[in-house]
Design goal:
17% of the residues lie in helices and 41% in strands.
C-alpha cells in the first residue's frame, strides 16, 4: 500500500513539473496610427509589459512585430504591450497571440 502511494505521488509530481514547464511562443503584430489623421506613426516603442528586453519600434508604415516565450498550458495567453512615443499618450494594449491589432494614439495636449 505504501509503495503504491509513493508511486502515485511521484507520478503526480512528474506530471505537475511537465505542465508547469510548458511554454509557448507568443507572436503579435500590428499597426500604430495617429488617432486624428489615421496616418502611420514611425518610431513608436512597443514593449511587452514587465519585459524591458522584449520590444520593437514601428517602421515607416507604422507596423511592428514582437515575439516572446511565455507560459501557457493549453494556449498562449494574450500579450500585454505598452505603446509609447513622445508627443502621444501612452497606452497599454492586450493583443491575442498570433493576432494583429490596429492601435490609434492620441496626441498629448501641450
Amino acid at each position: 500500500m505504501l509503495k503504491n502511494r509513493r508511486l502515485t505521488t511521484a507520478l503526480i509530481i512528474v506530471i505537475m513539473i511537465t505542465f508547469a514547464s510548458c511554454d509557448c511562443l507568443q507572436n503579435v503584430r500590428g499597426t500604430v496610427l495617429d488617432a486624428e489623421t489615421s496616418q502611420p506613426i514611425q518610431g513608436v516603442l512597443m514593449q511587452k509589459e514587465n519585459r524591458p528586453n522584449c520590444k520593437a519600434d514601428t517602421d515607416g508604415e507604422g507596423d511592428f512585430e514582437i515575439s516572446s516565450i511565455s507560459g501557457g498550458l493549453f494556449r498562449c495567453p494574450p500579450m500585454t504591450v505598452v505603446v509609447s512615443k513622445d508627443g502621444y499618450e501612452t497606452q497599454v494594449v492586450k493583443i491575442d497571440n498570433a493576432g494583429h491589432e490596429t492601435i490609434k494614439l492620441k496626441r498629448t495636449v501641450n
